[in-house]
Amino acid sequence: MPARMEDVARLAGVSTATVSRVLNNPELVSDEACRRVNEAIRQLDYRVNLAARSLRTNQTHTVAVVLPTIADPVINQMVEAIEDVAITAGYTLLLCSTRGDAAREHAYIELLTQQTVADGVLYISPRADPDTVLTLAQGAMPLVLCNYLVENPAVPCLLMDHVSSAYQATAHLLGLGYRRIALLNLAAPHYYPARMRLDGYLRAHAEAGITPDPTLRVEIDRPTYANNDWRGAIETLLARPDRPGAIVAFNDEVALEVYAVCRERGLRIPDDLSVTGCDDILSSRHVDPPLTTVRVPARVQGERAMRLLLKRLTRPHQPIPPRMLLPVDLIVRGSTGPPAG
Amino acid sequence: MPARMEDVARLAGVSTATVSRVLNNPELVSDEACRRVNEAIRQLDYRVNLAARSLRTNQTHTVAVVLPTIADPVINQMVEAIEDVAITAGYTLLLCSTRGDAAREHAYIELLTQQTVADGVLYISPRADPDTVLTLAQGAMPLVLCNYLVENPAVPCLLMDHVSSAYQATAHLLGLGYRRIALLNLAAPHYYPARMRLDGYLRAHAEAGITPDPTLRVEIDRPTYANNDWRGAIETLLARPDRPGAIVAFNDEVALEVYAVCRERGLRIPDDLSVTGCDDILSSRHVDPPLTTVRVPARVQGERAMRLLLKRLTRPHQPIPPRMLLPVDLIVRGSTGPPAG
DNA sequence: CTGTTAGCGCCTTCAG
DNA sequence: CTGAAGGCGCTAACAG
Known about the structure:
2 copies of one chain form a homodimer.
Chain A: H1 5-12, H2 16-24, H3 31-44, H4 50-57, E1 62-67, H5 73-88, E2 92-97, H6 102-113, E3 120-124, H7 130-138, E4 143-146, E5 157-160, H8 162-176, E6 181-186, H9 192-207, E7 217-220, H10 230-239, E8 246-248, H11 252-265, E9 274-276, H12 283-286, E10 293-295, H13 298-314, E11 324-326, E12 329-331
Parallel strand pairs in A: 1-2, 1-3, 3-4, 4-5, 5-11, 6-7, 6-8, 8-9
Antiparallel strand pairs in A: 10-12
Helix pairs in contact in A: 1-2, 1-3, 5-13, 6-7, 8-9, 10-11
Chain B binds a DNA duplex (16 and 16 nucleotides) through residues 4-6, 14-21, 23-24, 28-30, 33, 48-49, 51-58, 115-116.
């Protein structure tokens, strides 16, 4: 049986109220009492019972992080940054990965709307219907969205500028002289980055006065984040007689899949096909040729998001900051070059 | 103000005890009462207060996962598997990533030994001193170790067979005819996989009757899991006049770093240098040449570990199962081949 | 099958 | 600056 506050109080010769004060507001207690209490705490190896404290205070000092998967380089970077900030503020992270499964996401939301599970929620690129997310938003719990958007100005959100990421990649390829540029994208309608990337792709074309061939726009449905169905789509695309000269891939992993298909078909990069990725994962620098990609501020977004959530936790009634777009940078490497001939 | 159990009880015309029973032991309640209570719960949108429940039951239905980083493909696979099992058992995961920082790891242990934070702990490949971990083991909280070992038979643990992973890679290279094989390893003395890999490397040499050149054993200290200091070591190694003909890299990411250095120095793989990795990350299939590596059962280990922890949670006094070694498989691809000439 | 009752361990007024 | 006292919301005997 672990020591309770009462045991500490008795040993220190004070009341439990004083012990509680030493723990939470030591400035209200005389130095002498403080010393005795701390000594008793040490002797008894006393630890507060956090359940009891939560019951009283209605706080858990826990933040739930809802995300589609942690097996994604951008997301796990974000989560580490979130955790770094959380720790310094005395918060702990509850991991809720939905794996793209709507039922699971729903179950997690159900859990989180329970009382005293978490003080706030960080929602990262989910795939569920926005209505589901709005359930949370309507609840009392502070909520911050990352790379996701619901049409509700009361919900703060941070977005990586994926319009720009696709725009920069596409414009770079158009600038090199390509006219037939394929876009490998996710079909998920609620997956906001996918919509933004389509936007950027189209905008770059529009600015160049070019109408992109709509059949070069390939959309893959990968709801569970697990199966790499890109392969088939890539093969089909590259087998076409009018195959594109360049590909804007959804991210670096998809771009590497393009590398693999090219190797099989004897296509050389960038001579026969230029390719861009997105995210700047570790391997993108290591492959041959090094991948032209877009660096995204994963850690920065995680930090900002957590800081914002902390602010809402401590000052719930402060105004919601406007949506924030985080800039991204194209990194030109060897996988893109002028069209052959 | 959210509804409490008393509100439900009043609306359903029963006592709070009955409401509690409907929630926890519905079989003890008449169908009629059950129906009325559930109806009231729905009407009031009642949710149990988990802090109150925890205070009473001393259970949190939460499991802490302590790990060095989630930005590692093997670990995040394990964590996802852990979460899958946890969810089906009604448990939630508390994320505790130490980032190789002893102080942070200590702080997390301190938190976890607090009462009613978590019901159990899963410890994955930490880097801290085993004594720190023993603190937890001595505590009342069930603990399961993954890829880590403390000399205490009371602590169950699952290990990937990294003796075998290094053994298989080394034996493969010896079989191809190499005699000067370098080992890129982590220097961390408490990082169990590193010790096992050295073991396997030495054992393969011993069985082949060969005494490995000790200067080909490079050990890197990368305590925070952040800085890739491998580069310098690899460059030094490959600049030697008596450079090795083959390298057993610590994992795939390190192997890809070897690829990069080779490209810079104009060395061809496998003609001028054979390389093996470990973990079989996604990119290892995509690089050119595809990487010879070792597939490790990340998901299986995660599942087993969580199941074991659940068992200890429900039956604390059952005997501890013996240490379990999970088998790993060498996958030969294009990065290894017979020595040139 | 159901209700009454007594805390779980802590925080927080309110008096002193 | 300190103590006494009440209650946060729930569960688990126990008695009916």
